[in-house]
Amino acid sequence: MSNSLLILPGDGIGPEVMAEVRKVIDWFGARRGIAFDVSEDLVGGCAYDAHGTPLTDAAMEKAQSVDAVLLGAVGGPKYDKLDFSVKPERGLLRLRKEMDLFSNLRPAVCFDALADFSSLKKEVIGGLDIMIVRELTSGVYFGEPRGVFKEGNERVGINTQRYTEGEIARVARSAFELARARNNKVCSMEKANVMESGILWRDVVQEIHDAEYPDVELSHMYADAGGMQLVRWPKQFDVIVTDNLFGDMLSDVAAMLTGSLGMLPSASLGAPMANGRPKALYEPVHGSAPDIMGTGKANPIACILSFGMALRYSFGKGEEADLLERAIDKVLADGVRTADLMQAGDKTPATTAEMGDAIVAAL
Amino acid sequence: MSNSLLILPGDGIGPEVMAEVRKVIDWFGARRGIAFDVSEDLVGGCAYDAHGTPLTDAAMEKAQSVDAVLLGAVGGPKYDKLDFSVKPERGLLRLRKEMDLFSNLRPAVCFDALADFSSLKKEVIGGLDIMIVRELTSGVYFGEPRGVFKEGNERVGINTQRYTEGEIARVARSAFELARARNNKVCSMEKANVMESGILWRDVVQEIHDAEYPDVELSHMYADAGGMQLVRWPKQFDVIVTDNLFGDMLSDVAAMLTGSLGMLPSASLGAPMANGRPKALYEPVHGSAPDIMGTGKANPIACILSFGMALRYSFGKGEEADLLERAIDKVLADGVRTADLMQAGDKTPATTAEMGDAIVAAL
Ligand SMILES: CC(C)[C@H](C(=O)O)[C@@H](O)C(=O)O
Ligand SMILES: CC(C)[C@H](C(=O)O)[C@@H](O)C(=O)O
């Protein structure tokens, strides 16, 4: 089977970290004989600059036809004043929606070598390994009606949280499947005490559990309490499943707990395509970080690990993904550090490119 | 002026911590000659048990007519299966909505004596003192349409996020006012990158700032990044202003950061009444904690400090509020600790009642 990959470097540090991923892809081609059919396109602010839209129809079509999309990051202050409909984020949201990538996997893992970087105590986050499964194609991100309207003399801002039973069921299944391959525990989070959409969420997750995954341990938590518990004792969790908006917040909190923000990848998966592979988009959890753009301070590991997730989930190359992860472990153990991983007393940091080279060398 | 106070102990540990507040109220009456006209009623699950509704109309009327309402906590597993319309939480939400308590003040303060209880490093949270101002009467908590509906064969859960310009403006003003009395910095949080209601939120906060509070330093942050930054370096904030749902999550995360969850009070304020005092409800940030109900493990300090906020904001007794806070500091410095504040090696904890007595003695 051929391996087609669409690369969308995007804005800010996106192109810088993606250049390092290219080195890794080339290595797998040259040394492991895994040929990738790589194409590249624009998304976000740079697409708007070139074409007046954050994602062209042509790029959208390409994304639909490849085995995997790898995205850097979108957005930046330069685009803050743009109309809502052409903001950089709309490009990313269009990809998620039209590819129907309903299951967003966001691991929050604390790397041993980096436990000191967390603002949390080492005993609280050392060895942490949880997986947040966020619903990604529905909820308040996409519900209608939406907009800013005039009512009499006043402006009114409206968004709609909307979930169907089927949308909840499919992401719940994906969380239960993941849990079976991990520690068999799922915690579902919503605000069923104040939102009816949360009541439906809780009911459907429970029904899918009882009918199809009775072997998995399931609990429910209000999302505010969930945020608290993530801070208090995150190791109580294995898999967390939650909606689009709560997932946005909770996964960011969880990522920051680990101290490894520049290290965390994510996968957004949809239904299987004709060739059996799922529709898939991979991207680092970190954003476009315009403040450090062009300084060589960006850490390419999150994006390289996102490619690692693509190896595992899209290309059936679990062994190669393991190899890549081990190479990164080795580089970190050897003390190679980008600027975000420096501690007082450390010598000069490795640049983005030096980190990429070190990882290729370790491979 | 008379001082009328309605006490609603509620469910779980609510009545236990409220019993200790009563001692403090009595002390101010006997020793300081500040007479309170105290009445008591039911809210939450206990009101449902007695009357089939989480808040009777009579109790609602009483709440409307007093200077301040002091609430313990509502909810518990016993009521999980109740219909949405009579859940314990509906009683609290009815109070907030009908009293029009639009500005919810949630301080996140780290008490020196307790800095070790945080899961965060001491240097990250030592001396922390931020104030979260949460909009409390609108947004997705109250927007229509809402409910679980049948669409064809499928259930659909719907809630509506809805903010008017006026609703945003008034809570923004309350945040700017507070900032002027603190460190003059406000950070407003929303998801303007994906929600139109967030765009309106950002615009209105900026407009009120520019027109009425140009002297206050204002910044804007996406709510997910805000959650991250709260974990990374919370001391960067002074006042945070945000909507009902984001405020629910962010204030819980902020409260947990401090390690002082059993210590944090809150105030929910509305417009001034005929006597010049604002409509007001005070309650601890912690919940009903059914797991420790009846064990003497509950910490009454959050509820006592909530009464302290009432002294300050409703009864114009700032000096007495200071006195009460100093008494609590002293008790903590003396090493009196309820179960939630114990560390390995500590002797037996003080009970809820012993903590209350110690605070009265310190007064
Ligand atoms: C960039 C933005 C649209 C996006 C989101 O809100 O989903 C980001 O915060 C994320 O979590 O991937
Ligand atoms: C009890 C519940 C309705 C409430 C809320 O969601 O507002 C609580 O979490 C709070 O923060 O006061």
From TrEMBL, chains A, B:
Localization (cell): Cytoplasm
Q: Where does substrate bind?
A: 96, 106, 134, 224
Q: Which UniProt keywords apply?
A: Amino-acid biosynthesis, Branched-chain amino acid biosynthesis, Cytoplasm, Leucine biosynthesis, Magnesium, Manganese, Metal-binding, NAD, Oxidoreductase
SUPFAM superfamilies recorded for this chain? Isocitrate/Isopropylmalate dehydrogenase-like
The UniProt entry's coiled-coil ranges are: none
Q: Name one GO cellular component term.
A: cytosol
The residues that the entry says bind Mg(2+) are 224, 248, 252
Main location (coarse class): cytoplasm
Highest taxon listed in the record's lineage:
Bacteria
The pathway that the record names for this protein is: Amino-acid biosynthesis; L-leucine biosynthesis; L-leucine from 3-methyl-2-oxobutanoate: step 3/4
Site (Important for catalysis): residue numbering on this chain = 141, 191
GO molecular function terms here?
A: 3-isopropylmalate dehydrogenase activity; magnesium ion binding; NAD binding
One GO term under biological process is: L-leucine biosynthetic process
Q: Where does NAD(+) bind?
A: 76-89, 287-299
Isopropylmalate dehydrogenase-like domain ranges (all copies): 4-359
Q: How and how many cofactors are bound, per the record note?
A: Binds 1 Mg(2+) or Mn(2+) ion per subunit.
Sequence similarity: Belongs to the isocitrate and isopropylmalate dehydrogenases family. LeuB type 1 subfamily.
Q: What does this protein do?
A: Catalyzes the oxidation of 3-carboxy-2-hydroxy-4-methylpentanoate (3-isopropylmalate) to 3-carboxy-4-methyl-2-oxopentanoate. The product decarboxylates to 4-methyl-2 oxopentanoate.
Q: Quaternary structure per UniProt? A: Homodimer.
- State the name under which the record lists this protein: 3-isopropylmalate dehydrogenase
The organism encoding this protein is Albimonas donghaensis
